[in-house]
Design a protein that fits this description.
The complex is a heterodimer of chains A (403) and B (496).
Chain A: H1 3-11, E1 27-28, H2 33-46, E2 50-53, E3 67-70, E4 77-81, E5 86-90, H3 95-104, E6 107-108, H4 121-127, H5 134-137, E7 144-150, E8 156-160, H6 172-176, E9 185-192, E10 194-195, E11 199-207, H7 209-221, E12 228-232, H8 234-237, E13 242-250, H9 252-264, E14 271-273, H10 275-288, E15 294-299, H11 305-315, E16 320-324, E17 329-334, H12 338-350, E18 355-359, H13 362-368, H14 378-389
Chain B: H1 3-13, E1 18-19, H2 22-26, E2 42-44, H3 49-61, E3 66-69, E4 86-89, E5 96-100, E6 105-108, H4 114-121, E7 126-127, H5 140-146, H6 153-156, E8 163-169, E9 175-179, H7 190-194, E10 203-210, E11 212-213, E12 217-225, H8 228-240, E13 247-252, H9 253-260, E14 274-282, H10 285-301, E15 306-309, H11 313-324, H12 326-329, E16 336-339, E17 342-343, H13 349-362, E18 366-371, E19 377-378, E20 380-384, H14 389-408, H15 427-430, H16 433-446
Parallel strand pairs in B: 2-4, 3-4
Antiparallel strand pairs in B: 1-2, 5-6, 6-10, 7-11, 8-9, 8-10, 12-14, 12-15, 13-14, 13-18, 16-20, 17-19, 18-20
Helix pairs in contact in B: 1-3, 8-10, 8-13, 13-14
Chain lengths: 403, 496
């Protein structure tokens, strides 16, 4: 019995999305978490290698495997509790669909990940890719109350729960967030929400990067804390010059006060965008990161952010760069060779700054890995965890690369 | 315990920092929870990171289990060691190594007391946001181990959101650095999984924490209600309206009266069924004023009899002192106090509070509630006399029923105090055998011999076999294990 026949026998004919053309591998879309567990349990026993995708818009579907497991049929929002500001959604739901369903109930997930609007929730969690709102609302992991995931040998594991605070057992939720699928397939996510902000303003300032960084320093020194404060390269902002964009969200009174203070900084040159302009501005910048072959993030400190940006600009290029000066992080997209990435990573490691490869063709990510070489003592821990959650290496994930 | 071990340890840390005498060890027989006690074989107090490494290596060579401990203010029996284990007391590692104002972070040793760090950061207009009620005594190492919370975690997040990097000594004495100063995980988020692991993954010897600017504008409101239900509904109304208070705390009548009878009297109205303490903060006076007005109007609309705003910092401090010292004030009610900890969805607070009151009445116990209402994080406190075995039995039964009630409401068994010993028996009520087994397997990655804080967090008997044969049936979901305890768990709790 062929792999395809076995999968159809296990999950039904509908679960296989299309008949594989020559050279392509079957794409299987299990309709429930239990079906994911059944498929992975079988893959574990049969020795099949499985690559995982959501809607297929972030990581290219090019990892060598025997089949693709897509979570796209796990696309239900199973609970929204606006009174409690929590929701539960399956991992395959598209970001835009999730956002709309939450907004219909007056709730908001304060994350604006890079990528196209239809990117899956599970992909955002698995890659830990927060966007500019990280400045005000924290990284992806801070928005998670719990996850349910399936291990490489087909066990369904629950981490966390669906309440605001939870220290029952170890925090497997944080372990899954940003692990790039190395520890299992995320199938269900319990989310911490905010009320849909009553005021949401974006102001922009254009100029040379150095001047804008100085303005960002002033903003920070004044203890202003915009929900997002992002420096975007001209290509990314689709403007002539670099742009410093500040997003203010909250009550009308708080946003008005912040806007007044912000205009007091940098000589009052900050200009507000109309709501639809602001929406287009942030969406375009987010989507741009899914258009280039390679995307990575580096996580430094606010002080020294300018040097970090210079380093990235000079070692690679400065066409597609977005930096959060208040956080100290930079996201870069473009074309880069393994050698250049390795060199940059080595330089950054010397400054205690990690470089996480977020998106790249398989040849590159298998060469340099999402994380690259670990610091002393970390490698055995990650290897131990990998073995714990995926004893036979069923799930194809290039976490370390071949360094 | 073998006296040669005491000598060997004394050789590493100095004789006066090894406590072997019975009377000395008695000081470590309990943490903040009076229902569990255990005398450690020895207590050792290293003074530096290198001494910690040396002690841990020696214990590894001799295969002796050990339990890291901070100030011992924990409320789950998590920092207790038995006669076969060494207690590794970290209170002498109490140096603040760095306050980096420009990057708003600090590097501290694990024995630094929580409030001391905020005090040290205050001249720079910064503070460490998580503020457990024990913050004047508890240590940051303990906060990391328990993923501690506190009133202001409603807005600012619990400990795990404030830990950027850790230096960890593993059970074999090896030292590993997790995370990075900017908070970006270096690989998978091992800082995230270490925080809240209750000492099972090793000893944090250096902790890099995030500091947050002190708010420029603060408004504190006290609202009193004639029913618990109305107070509970007011909590939902505030959160549902999109306000994000810095803190939103509730105290019931029993708690109010204990506080008002004590030296911590804060001026809470004695005849109220419940009070809410609501704090709003931010950068702009005008904006915070506006939010305070909105909160006050919501509180009134939900039936608050009075809403009072603290006139100045002194009055605010007094209102908070009553709240933070409420556990101490309850010492007036009885000889012993069990501080319970559970979390429920905020909207179920009114129902759950009524259920707790009914359980208290059924077991003829005094239960006082003082808790983080904005997070749905309950602290029902049971006052009792531990000398009377029959009362202790009733306390245990009532605690189990309260836990079952919270789980049935969609909640969990601990929000900030940890599992320790006390909540072990409830773990199978919230996690199935596979999930417990996964946690146990993760623990063994960090500590293969299970020598650090043995016997805590994971009820090993309830774990499904991890490396063995899987259940072949479709779905592979596990039937929840029965709880291995004498306590009565209502059947409904097993169906959640």
């Amino acid at each position: 019995m062929s792999l395809l026949d076995k999968v159809r026998a296990l999950l039904g004919r509908d679960a296989v999305l299309e008949g594989p053309a020559s050279g392509e591998i079957p794409r299987v879309a299990p309709p429930t978490p239990d079906a994911v567990a059944l498929l992975l349990g079988t893959a574990h026993e049969e020795g099949w290698r499985v690559r995982v995708e959501g809607t297929g818009s972030w990581l290219p579907p090019d990892a060598p495997a025997d089949l693709t497991l897509t979570t796209r049929r796990l696309d239900r929002v199973t609970a929204v509790e606006p009174q409690d500001l929590v929701a539960t959604a399956e991992a395959g739901i598209g970001w835009d669909a999730l956002r709309q369903q939450l907004a219909d109930r007056g709730a908001w997930l304060a994350l604006d990940p890079p990528g196209i609007a239809g990117r899956s929730l599970g992909s955002v969690v698995a890659t830990g890719t927060a966007g500019p709102l990280r400045a005000g609302f924290g990284p992806v992991r801070d928005h998670l109350l719990g996850v349910t995931f399936v291990t490489g040998d087909g066990r369904i594991i629950q981490g966390g729960g669906r309440v605001m605070k939870n220290v029952a057992g170890y925090d497997l939720t944080r372990l899954q967030a940003g692990a790039f699928g190395a520890f299992g397939v995320i199938v269900l996510v319990h989310l911490r929400l905010r009320a849909l902000p009553r005021a949401d303003e974006t102001l922009v300032l254009e100029g040379p990067a150095e001047e804008l960084l100085a303005a960002a320093d002033e903003i920070r020194a004044a203890e202003l804390a915009p929900a997002a404060l992002e420096l975007l390269s001209p290509a990314l902002a689709r403007r002539e010059r670099w742009v410093l964009a500040a997003r203010l969200v909250g009550s009308p009174a708080a946003v008005a006060a912040e806007e007044g203070d912000l205009r007091g900084v940098a000589g009052g040159r900050f200009a507000p965008l109309r709501a639809e302009e602001a929406h287009a501005f942030w969406s375009r910048a987010a989507e741009a990161f899914a258009l280039r072959p390679v995307t990575f993030r580096v996580g430094g400190l606010p002080e020294g952010g300018e040097e970090l940006l210079d380093l990235v600009r000079h070692q690679l290029s400065d066409e597609w760069v977005s930096a959060a000066p208040g956080v100290g992080s930079i996201r870069w997209a473009g074309e880069a060779s393994a050698e250049r990435l390795r060199r940059l990573r080595r330089t950054l490691a010397g400054q205690e700054v990690p470089l996480t490869l977020e998106r790249a063709p398989w040849a590159l990510r298998s060469a340099v890995g999402h994380f690259g070489a670990y610091r002393e003592g970390v490698g055995p821990l990650v290897a131990g965890l990998r073995h714990t959650f995926d004893p036979k290496g069923t799930l194809v994930a290039a976490v370390e690369g071949d360094e | 315990m073998d006296s040669s071990l005491a000598s060997a340890l004394a050789g590493l840390v100095g004789e006066r920092h090894v406590r072997a005498a019975h009377a000395e060890r008695l000081a470590y027989a309990m943490d903040g929870l009076p229902t569990h006690h255990s005398l450690p074989g020895l207590a050792v107090l290293p003074g530096t990171r290198d001494e910690v490494v040396a002690v841990v290596r020696l214990l590894a060579d001799l295969e002796v289990p050990f339990v890291p401990r901070g100030a011992g203010t924990g409320l789950s029996g998590g920092a207790l060691a038995d006669h076969a284990a060494v207690l590794l007391v970290l209170t002498r590692l109490n140096r603040i190594l760095k306050i980096d104002v420009a990057n708003r972070l600090a590097v501290v040793e694990p024995g630094v007391v929580n409030a001391r760090l905020s005090a040290a950061a205050a001249p720079h207009r910064l503070h460490y946001a998580p503020d457990p009620s024990s913050q004047t005594a508890c240590t940051l190492g303990g906060n990391v181990a328990e993923n501690a919370g506190g009133p202001h975690c409603l807005k600012y997040g619990v400990t795990t959101s404030h830990i950027l990097a850790l230096e960890v000594v593993r059970a074999d004495g090896s030292v590993v650095n997790l995370g990075s100063p900017g908070g970006e995980p270096w690989g998978p988020d091992l800082v995230g999984v270490f925080v809240g692991s209750e000492g099972n993954f090793g000893v944090a010897t250096r902790i890099t924490v995030r500091l947050v600017p002190l708010p420029r504008a603060v408004r504190t409101l006290l609202a009193d209600f004639s029913s618990l239900r109305a107070a509970g509904e007011a909590v939902s109304a505030i959160i549902g309206a999109g306000l994000v208070p810095a803190a939103l705390e509730m105290m019931d009548r029993s708690c109010i009266q204990a506080v008002e009878d004590s030296v911590y009297a804060a001026g809470y109205p004695r005849d109220a069924a419940a009070v809410l303490l609501v704090e709003l903060d931010g950068r702009s006076e005008a904006a915070v004023d506006e939010e305070a007005r909105q909160a006050a109007s919501l509180l009134s609309a939900q039936g608050a009899r009075h809403v009072r705003q603290a006139a100045d910092a002194k009055e605010r401090e007094k209102l908070w002192q009553g709240r933070k010292k409420a556990f101490g004030a309850m010492g007036r009610l009885s000889r012993d106090l069990v501080v319970q900890d559970a979390v429920v969805p905020r909207s179920s607070l009114p129902d759950v509070l009524e259920s707790i009151a009914a359980i208290a009445a059924r077991y003829d116990l005094v239960v006082s509630n003082v808790f983080h209402a904005g997070d749905g994080n309950l602290h029902p406190n049971i006052s009792f006399d531990a000398r009377d075995p029959e009362t202790v039995d009733r306390v245990e039964h009532a605690s189990a029923e309260i836990m079952a009630t919270c789980i049935a409401a969609g909640g969990t068994i601990t929000g900030e105090h940890g599992v320790g010993l006390d909540k072990l028996r409830y773990m199978p009520l919230v996690f199935d055998g596979d999930s417990l087994a996964a946690m146990h397997a993760v623990r063994r990655v960090f500590d293969p011999d299970e020598r650090v804080n043995p016997g805590k967090v994971i009820p090993v008997h309830a774990c499904r076999e991890w490396a063995g044969v899987r259940n072949a049936e479709f779905g592979m979901r596990n039937v929840r294990s029965r709880v291995d305890s004498a306590f009565h768990i209502p059947h409904s709790a097993l169906d959640v």
